[in-house]
Amino acid sequence: MATIKERQEVLVEEFEFFDEWMDKYNHIIEMGKSLDALPEEKKNDDLLVQGCQSKVWLHAEKNGENVRFQADADAIIAKGIVAMLIDVFDNQPAKEVAAADLGFLEEIGLKDHLSPTRANGLMSMIKQMKFYALAFAG
Amino acid sequence: MSYDVQAIRQQFPILNQEIHGRPLVYLDNAATAQKPIAVIDAISDYYLNYNANVHRGVHTLSQRATDAMEAVREDVRAHINAAETAEIIFTRGITDSINTIAFGMGALVKKGQNIVITAVEHHSNIVPWQMLCQRTGAELRHLPMNEHGEVVLDGIEEIIDQNTAMVAFNHISNALGTINPVEAILERAQKVGAWTLVDGAQSGPHAKVDVRAWDVDFFTLSSHKMYGPTGLGVLYGKRERLEALPPYQGGGEMIATVTLEESTYAGLPHKFEAGTPHIEGIIGFGAALKYINEVGIEAIAAHEKELLEYATQECSEIEGFRVIGDAKNKASVLSFVVDGTHPYDLGVLLDQQGVAVRTGQHCTQPIMDAFCIDGTARASFAMYNTKEEIDLFKAALEKAVTMLR
Q1: What is the CATH number of the domain that holds B348?
Q2: What is each CA distance from A66 to A84, B53, B344, in whole angstroms?
Q3: CB contacts, 8 Å: A118 with chain B
Q4: What are the extents of the domains in chain A?
């Protein structure tokens, strides 16, 4: 199974294919559309990630040593971004998720491209995922 | 002379740039308007040639700065037809203006009285009154709105009654663009002897207001929405009302005498202008007012009306496009949702194509709740926008919607 690092490399390669940011956004949107929606009953306020401009729900559960993530968002770009994070982190060892370095966000250019408020939202998503992983690893 | 939008655009250097490789289409004017060269030059001129603190100095620069600032007070007085310059107070903005009144009324309002606003207010004309009601035990009421985003006057006689201390409402809604029936609301308020405040945040750049024709007690304007600098507002108040209110903030400039035990306050307008004023802002705002009047506020309003109608008609061709707030009387704001898309996503993809709009709740959560939506995207127009820009906006919106569905 691919490691967190390998999964990031695949994403970076996918994005290298696009020169224009509109095309990169299109890819993010497509990833958002492909992410399985959370069932309505799971979209409760306890799962909302604080600090996002749109609503992002994040659900995590333990799977042996690993951690499984599910997420949804009311805005599709936010959903696409969380889908990328799930792509990297889902069903990985909790310890590694907690310790992971997400260099791909810089390589893709997403971190620099987002407005400060949206970048904060992205950081909040990552923080929340690592928080769950840390709890499960302990 | 016909309206020469290209000549006007020349006066706004910021418009001539690309965003993400596309020409900037700036349609976030209800949030803040861009500044003409005249305003930027007036501020530069102040700092290059006569920066000094006002009112206190005997030296020449201080006198020049004071004269320039006080000349703007007179220009504002003339612009809104106030009776005297002492009734024109410079504040930090509309929020500050409304808080000044709401704070001061704390000394006058009693339990059993009520304050009336409308369902289409900005948070800045809701929260200060809620705070006043918490302090005094007064009741906060509102005139409701209908599905078009228009204030409903049915039942106004029960809502505004003998116990109404203040009726405060906006001239034009920032979230919907609705032009409120100012005269009808004022008439009822005046009949029961209530104080009145009209928030001119959105009307300042589009409509000429005569405060004495309205016979309104308080009226407030925002410089930065009228092509002037940020951080400056105007509060007009009738002399007798301003004199009845205690000052909001204490400090320098607002006093007559100070001992370590007690102080007496300065007369109007200084009583409400504690501290060094926003001198550069006031001077810049003077230049903005002059510019608006040179172009002509009626001509600007007519141009914007044409843009609003064109944009509404063009965008309505997009499947699922819904205008939020389709009042009969509207000014230069097109608030909308597109079925199957989220306003934030539209905002991001429009920005990628050079188009600046506002997305979200526009500081009007109660309005969004009433329409059962989380927010809207809002395009708002100013004197320098063109039909060609609306074509670019529409094309960008179509592309965004295609990507998102």
Answers
A1: 3.90.1150.10
A2: 18, 66, 33
A3: 348
A4: 4-137
Distance CA B333, CA B204 (A): 14
Assigned token pair, A87: 């792509």
Interface pTM, i.e. ipTM:
0.89
pTM exceeding the 0.90 threshold for the entire prediction: yes
Question: CB neighbours of A57 closer than 8 A, spacing ≥ 6?
Answer: A38, A42, A43, A44, A47, A48, A49, A71, A72, A73
Q: Which of A120, A111, A118, A110 is nearest to B344 (CA)?
A: A118
CATH 3.40.1190.10 is right for the domain spanning A4-137: no
Tell me the count of A-B CB pairs closer than 8 A: 34
- Mutation target to probe the A interface, by most A beta carbons within 10 A, among B20, B339, B348 is B348
CA nearest to B333, candidates B313, B364, B305? B305
Residue of A nearest to B21 (CA): A20
> Is residue B405 a part of any domain in this protein?
no
Q: How many domains does chain B have?
A: 2
**What CATH number does residue B200 fall under?**
3.40.640.10
Pair B226, B340 in one domain: no
Please write the tens of the pLDDT for every residue from B137-181.
999 999 999 999 999 999 999 999 999 999 999 999 999 999 999
Burial code (b: 16+ CB inside 10 Å, e: under 16) for B117-150 equals bbbbbbebbbbbbeebbeebebeebbbebeeebb
At B35-90, the pLDDT tens digits run 999 999 999 999 999 999 998 778 999 999 999 999 999 999 999 999 999 999 99
Specify whether B330 is located in the same domain as B258: no
User: What residues of B are in contact with residue A30 (Cβ under 8 Å)?
Assistant: none
| Domain hosting residue B95, numbered range | 40-293
Residues B238 and B220 in one domain: yes
